[in-house]
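Protocol step 4 of 5: obtain the predicted structure for the target chain.
Materials: sequence only (see below). No template structures provided, no constraints applied. The aim of this step is simply to have a reference model before the mutagenesis design in step 5. Sequence pasted as it appears in the construct record:
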Amino acid sequence: MAVSYNGLWKMLIDKNMYKKDLSADLGISSATMAKMGRGENVSMDILEKICDYMDCNIGDIMSFEKDREEKDD
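Step 4 output (structure tokens):
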């Protein structure tokens, strides 16, 4: 399964924010933001910070998607 942060990216757009704003406000490193951009795993601490800041639940900012190989089975 792959991680998708599309919910977070859409939320940022809705709030007229940029990734760099979120990173600066929460002290999230650019490396962590890059990992999220690539759909890689990040720590629960980071996700908790984001949820608290955005006043949302984890399901609002991330989801799991089946890999293409799994879809073909």
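Step 4 remarks: The chain has a mean pLDDT of 92. The first strand starts at residue 2 and ends at 4.
Proceed to step 5.
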